[in-house]
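Researcher: I'd like a structural prediction for the single chain below. Treat it as a standalone chain; there are no partners to consider.
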Amino acid sequence: MDFKVLAVGDVVGNPGMDRVRRSLRYLKRKTGADFVIVNGENAAVVGMTAQQGEDILDAGADVITMGNHTFNKREIVPFLEECPQIVRPANLAPQVPGRGWAVYESRAGDVAVIDLLGRCSMDFGPDNPFLMIDKILKEITAKIILVEIHAEATSEKLAMGWMLDGRVSAVWGTHTHVPTADAQVLPKGTGYVTDLGMTGPRDSILGIKPELSIAKFRGDLPERYRWADGPTKMEAVLFTIDSATGRCKAAERVDLRD
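Model: Treating it as a single chain, here is the predicted structure.
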């Protein structure tokens, strides 16, 4: 039986939240997705509030993943503990709240979702994700295993995908907000894409007003980042997985744009 997983790129600001509310169920129906995972760590530009998390789930997501901005909105802490449908990076310090991976029921049986944080050019030093994933996989018996690596470097994401080829069903990257054209099935049956892209303002720099990002690179006086206005987009990848073997059969982009 084919089991379709829709992985949706980082939601950015109010425009991204509006797009999720408006389009996620439509895209789920259009693709026939059985399971939907949305990265929500930029729903408040940096971080996510509990209400935004609830809204993403209400819009049709089965699981929300996070990243390096997990704790930028401290009000998220109780939500991380109370809501089983949200996972933050598994390789953060062991004392922080929340869960780094979880197993969920589906029509195809158990589905394991693992969230990892890359180490290249990140603000702080998480544990080695390549060693952490080996430890986690020893605890999982589910055939369908989905891994997100929230990372800056494309090489780090690619290395994770190739290391896990044949060991998990799919690996995808988030964080850089720019969709990559390398959706594929690796030789041993793992679906892969370097970056899903983002959900939010179409005419922007990573969701932010272009002039604010340009000013930063020019060395101008810093300003608080604000999301861009105007048309929006939702960038995602659909993975088709054989539920009997856990191997991926296809990986394809399914982006929406105004």
